[in-house]
Design brief:
Largest sheet: 6 strands, mixed
GO molecular function, one term: acyltransferase activity
CATH superfamily of the largest domain: Malonyl-Coenzyme A Acyl Carrier Protein, domain 2
Helix content: 40-55%
Number of domains: 4
Distance between the termini: 51 Å
Keywords: Acyltransferase, Antibiotic biosynthesis, Phosphopantetheine, Phosphoprotein, Transferase
Shape: globular
Structural class: alpha/beta
Protein name: Acyltransferase domain-containing protein
Number of strands: 11
Number of helices: 22
CATH class of the largest domain: Alpha Beta
Length: about 550
């Protein structure tokens, strides 16, 4: 058995973010951009470097509609560039590519030189454009792969297939539009979340058989080199060897399922405890949903990466919800309660600990509920409905709330009816974090308030020893947190919640739901009265909302 510790994940679809490398003029990233542009010109196409260096570049949704060739090459370029950024902070033991990310993974591992890796992507895109039927699509289901396969079998269309197994309860199905729509309707009847993906083709399905054959014929002249790094393939289902026909693997990949969940679990069994996502496509969240006791990290964009932003982030950082092990989707074992004192330090003279984040609170809640209810901790997910999914009726919920109050030292705050009304642990964690944060961070709280009186000594100690305020998070960081928050609450795969998706037209979030989500956003970011501003509910996309939050946070906090 191979022993590994650090795994680099290279994204496929979903790996493109406009302006991902804005402000990063390092030679290693510049080489990737220049090479991609040069290869694009060989195919009579425009370059893609502007897509990754300009923040006003077209969105992924725009490129799906107008230029899927550029989108595919930009995804490859983003993954390879992200790998080079990640390598500044970490050394990988194994490299894994998700879907089309396998081309990038094989490239960074030395099987193909950089230009040939880009050529493989271009040949693949041309084959798809020339030979893929136009009536195909993909849908993500909140179901295990085995149950999703039953739905596929019920539809009885040989062109329909389970395309990707991402996490224990996230599977992607691909095939003809009509068949995909039937799967979505069946899932809805079962009260299972089904989300149509913004994918240009029905990847990993029999519909791509002709395109796969054309792709194989087009790349016969591309030379394969010995691997310089260890690569695990979620399509092949194991570690690759130098005698593996890697071009044949990439051809087969177009019509073969991606078993990402199985890959993560095997690597975890081999010792992997750090997963570094070379980009921001949501793979970190999938890992946290799939295995316990892991540290997930993502490369930052632009100059932030050079300052070490790809290193693991502490629980109190602005990206804690999205990237730290203590995540809204985490399955890692929570730290002991004594190590996460929720309000006051044990010794008043010691430096004050930062307010506990909702992600940390959620981890402790999951451990507490699992211990009391006798469930495996991985069953107690943040988005599981306490009554419908976990069978916790109103009486048991009130009993658990007493334990929660004692554990977190909520005191009279727990009398607030909002606590018992929260439908999921993620919602409860956000409320606890909000209440605790207000107790710690509001030195001017009224002395007449009972909770404020009880917490006054701790608040004074915190105020006296608090470190200087950290810089406000960037719009990119805020957007990452928003995507995780909306995905958790709405039950969508995080990769579906893109910054440029229209909240109403693309995600089906009507005005009522938008107002409800705004309440959660206000609590999460501590916006307070700022959120009353009508501009917040008027923002059409999460990217717009992130920009607005970033602009008001310094005054709000």
């Amino acid at each position: 058995m191979m022993v590994v510790e650090t795994v680099f994940l290279l994204p496929g679809q979903g790996g493109y973010t406009p302006g991902l490398f804005a402000g990063d003029d390092s030679p290693e990233v510049r080489e990737v951009l220049d090479t991609a542009d040069r290869v694009a010109a060989e195919f009579g196409r425009g370059g893609v470097s502007h897509l990754l260096t300009r923040t006003d570049a077209p969105s992924a949704a725009d490129l799906v509609r107008s230029d899927s060739f550029a989108l595919q090459l930009a995804v490859f370029t983003a993954a390879v560039g992200g790998f080079r950024i990640a390598r500044r902070q970490h050394t990988p033991d194994v490299v894994v590519g998700h879907s089309m990310g396998e081309i990038a993974a094989l490239t960074v591992a030395g099987a193909f030189d950089l230009a040939d890796g880009a050529r493989l992507v271009c040949h693949r895109s041309e084959a798809l454009l020339a030979h893929c039927p136009s009536d195909g699509g993909m849908v993500a289901l909140e179901l295990p792969a085995a149950r999703a396969a039953h739905l596929v079998g019920a539809v009885a269309d040989r062109r329909l297939a389970v395309a990707v197994s991402n996490a224990p309860r996230q599977t992607v199905v691909a095939g003809p539009d009509e068949a995909v729509a039937v799967v979505a309707r069946l899932a809805s009847a079962m009260e299972v979340q089904a989300t149509r993906l913004n994918a240009p083709f029905p990847f990993h399905s029999p519909m791509l058989a002709v395109a796969a054959e054309a792709f194989g014929e087009a790349v016969t002249a591309v030379r394969q080199h010995p691997l310089r790094a260890t690569v695990y393939s979620p399509v092949a289902g194991g570690y690759l060897q130098d005698d593996t026909d890697l071009k044949a693997l990439l051809v087969r990949q177009l019509t073969t399922p991606v078993r990402f969940l199985a890959a993560v679990r095997e690597l975890h069994a081999d010792g992997a405890r750090r997963f570094v996502e070379c980009g921001r496509a949501g793979l970190s969240g999938l890992v946290r949903r799939s295995v316990p006791d892991v540290d997930t990290t993502r490369t930052a964009q632009g100059r932030a990466a050079e300052a070490g932003a790809s290193a693991p982030l502490p629980a109190a950082s602005t990206e804690a919800v999205a990237t730290a092990p203590a995540s809204t989707e985490a399955v890692a074992t929570a730290p002991a309660a004594a190590e996460v004192a929720p309000v006051a330090p044990a010794v008043p003279a010691a430096p004050a600990a930062p307010a506990v984040s909702a992600a940390d609170v959620l981890d402790e809640l999951r451990e507490l509920y699992a211990s009391v209810l006798g469930y495996p901790v991985e069953v107690i997910t943040g988005d599981a409905d306490l009554e419908a999914d976990l069978g916790i009726d109103s009486l048991k919920r009130a009993e658990m709330l007493g334990k929660v109050s004692a554990h977190f030292g909520l005191g009279e705050s727990a009398v607030d009816g909002r606590f018992v009304a929260q439908p999921t642990l993620a919602d409860l964690a956000a409320l606890i974090s909000e209440v605790q944060g207000g107790a710690v961070r509001t030195p001017a709280a009224s002395a007449a308030s009972a909770p404020a009186q009880a917490l006054a000594p701790a608040a004074a100690a915190v105020a006296a020893s608090a470190p200087p305020a950290k810089p406000a998070p960037s719009a990119a960081d805020v957007l990452d947190e928003l995507r995780e928050l909306y995905a958790s609450v709405l039950g969508y795969p995080v990769e579906v919640i893109t910054g440029d998706a229209d909240l109403e037209a693309d995600l089906g979030i009507d005005s009522l739901k938008r107002a409800e989500m705004l309440g959660k956003v206000s609590a999460h970011f501590g916006l307070g009265e700022s959120a009353v501003d009508g501009r917040f509910v008027a923002q059409p996309t999460l990217a717009d909302l992130a920009d607005l939050i970033t602009s008001v946070q310094p005054s709000a906090r």
